[in-house]
Structure prediction request, 224 residues.
Amino acid sequence: GQQLNQSPQSMFIQEGEDVSMNCTSSSIFNTWLWYKQDPGEGPVLLIALYKAGELTSNGRLTAQFGITRKDSFLNISASIPSDVGIYFCAGLSGGGADGLTFGKGTHLIIQP
Amino acid sequence: DADVTQTPRNRITKTGKRIMLECSQTKGHDRMYWYRQDPGLGLRLIYYSFDVKDINKGEISDGYSVSRQAQAKFSLSLESAIPNQTALYFCATGRGDNNEQFFGPGTRLTVL
Prediction:
C-alpha cells in the first residue's frame, strides 16, 4: 500500500524557536492534510491543502503542497508550550471517498 | 457538544469476546470511517462508508466488521477479540465535497 515518510520522528526545541517537519511519498496525492493530536484525544485538523504548490497559513502554522504532489511540509513559527503534541501528515489519493494514508507522526517536545 | 462521539472511551476485555464500538456524529456528513492507532504508528484505515448502504474495506479489515445503522451512526465490531487488537480506535467523518476528515475522541481497547 501507499506509505508516507514523515520526519523528523521527534523534535526537542526551545520555546520561541521555529519548527519544520515534512512528509514524502513515492505516490502522488491529491490532498494533503496536517493534524495535531494531544494525549488522550483524537487528531484535530490544522491545515488542508488541495493544489500542487499551494501554500496555506493558519495563524503561526504554514503548510505547503509540494509541486510534485509527493510531499508536503509544515512550519510552526515562534513555538509556544501548547504546541506540544504529535503532528501527523495525511494524504488522500483517491477521489475523496477513500480513507487517509497517515505518516507515523512527529512528536514535538518544547523544553523550558 | 462534541460533533463526533465515541462510546465507550475505554474498554478492557478478554480474548474471544465480542466487542462493539459505537460512533455517532452530528456534523451531517455522509462519509464515516474507522481507524486504528498503535504506539509509534500513524492511523490505519479499517473500514469506511459513503452512506447507509455502502461499506468498504480499508487497509486492515481482517478480524473486524462494521454496521452503518443510520447516516449518523457507524459501529465497529470485533467478533472474537485477540490481544493484538489492543489499540486506540478512532471514528472519523467526512463530506463529499472536500477531503477533510474530522475525528472523534477515540476508544482505548485492551484485549487481555
Q: What stands out?
A: Chain B has a mean pLDDT of 93. Chain B touches chain A through 27 residues (CB under 8 Å). DSSP finds no helices and eleven strands in chain B. The CA atoms of residues 2 and 87 of chain B lie 22 Å apart.
